[in-house]
Amino acid sequence: MNNKVVLAYSGGLDTTYCAVYLQKVKGLEIHALTVNTGGFSDKEIEQIASRAKSLGVASFECVDVTKEYYDSCIKYLIFGNVLKNATYPLSVSAERMVQAIAVAEHVKKTGASYVAHGSTGAGNDQVRFDMVFQSMLPGVEIITPIRDLRLSREEEITFLKDNGVEMNAEKAKYSINKGLWGTSVGGKETLTSKSSATPCRPSNICRPSHSLMAWEGISMSAIPSLASKAG
Amino acid sequence: MGRDIHVGDTIIGIKGRVGFEAAAPVIIIKAHHLLEKHTLTKWQLYWKDQLSTWYGNWLHEGQMLDPTMRNIEKFLEDTQATVTGKAFVTLQPYRFTVTGIESAHDLMSSKFGSYGEMNKGWSGDDVKGFAKIFGNQTAIYHKVNEAAQ
User: How far is the C-alpha of B57 from the C-alpha of B59, rounded, in Å?
Assistant: First the structure.
């Protein structure tokens, strides 16, 4: 066993927490890997890279698997006209698989004894990552701090602040996933069965407080940038 | 366009709800599906639906490494041999319409007759015989059970 851990890193709240926690509390050597499935621009990748480095990771890499993602997955979703429950094109489910496989390959390459992901204990991703790692990485220990410590977003923000890392609190309220096959947004509105939760301009989220989602009562045309884009 | 809310069953058994924007995926899928409706047979479409629904659910549940997925991919790939041509899409604010297709493999060819209009490849007698045999078992069922009452 060595003290290397490969962290599936997106630069969001959960994976930032993992990077700091695994280093400072667990004393592990962090090898952060960002898997771009087509959702990140070059500029965003630069930002993710510089943030990772500022957190003191031993290494940071970003792999672009856009083509593999298309060839091994999206292609078949088109062939099959796959819309889950006749609605959802599996934007997140599909890319999470391809990301997990890319992370597993990075673990093999670095020879790390540990692999970490920032999934909470409440969602699908924990099962997806766990199952892929179980199949591809026998003997490698899976570490999941957010799930195991049952952390809330607020607790993560506080811990990071205490360790000198500032997170955009407004943005951290939501879980946003951008990828080649769509963008999803989860957060307070999606936790109810009634609130309108249709992303307003997720493909261009730069000022989340301005218009992350189209709330009930706010028509989309009330947001000038969107109206002009649509018109 | 392509904005909606997905409500579904999570792998861990609870219901989940998520907002999404996926304009390109939704348009691509709808355009592709229309092309398939023209170029595939009834039962090709039927089995594609069955298998791809299962494929999507199993992928959603994290089982991409299950070898059954590779088997279904082969089937799906094989169905695409004649699915080629043009699909026409009109984009409007907040909505789109897939208006039609053009394909050398379009099975809706007027050479063989137009639905509800004109039959060119068969006679009325052909259909009378076909209808008699096609309804044979159901007609037998009703006769037998009327007699038994």
Answer: 5
The helix (run of H) or strand (run of E) holding residue A16 is helix A13-24
Chain B residues in contact with A65 (beta carbon < 8 A): none
Span B105-131, pLDDT tens digits:
999 987 787 887 788 888 999 999 999
- The mean of the pLDDT values for chain A is 85
The domain spans of chain B are: 3-115, 116-149
Task: Judge whether A62 and A7 are in contact, CB under 8 Å.
Answer: no
Whether A2 contacts A113, CB under 8 Å: yes
- A129 and A48 in a common domain: yes
* Cα–Cα distances in angstroms (integers) from residue A101 to residues A9, A75, A90, A116, B113, in the given order: 14, 17, 17, 13, 51
Both A16 and A105 in a single domain?
Answer: yes
Whether residues A12 and A62 fall in one domain: yes
Q: What is the model's pLDDT at position A221?
A: 34
B42-60 vs A91-110: helix crossing angle, rounded to 10: 50
Q: What's this model's pTM, rounded to 2 decimal places?
A: 0.87
Is the predicted ipTM greater than 0.95, yes or no?
Answer: no
Q: Does A117 touch chain B (CB under 8 A)?
A: no
- Best residue in A66, A69, A72, A83 to probe B by mutation, most B CBs within 10 Å? A83
Distance CA(A177)–CA(A10), nearest Å, equals 10
Check if CATH label 3.90.1260.10 holds for domain B3-115: yes
B-interface mutation test, from A88, A101, A175, most B Cβ less than 10 A away: A88
A198–B28 CB contact, under 8 Å: no
Nearest by CB to A199, from B3, B61, B73: name it. Answer: B3
Q: Where are the alpha helices (DSSP H) in B1-149?
A: 23-39, 42-60, 67-79, 124-134, 136-148
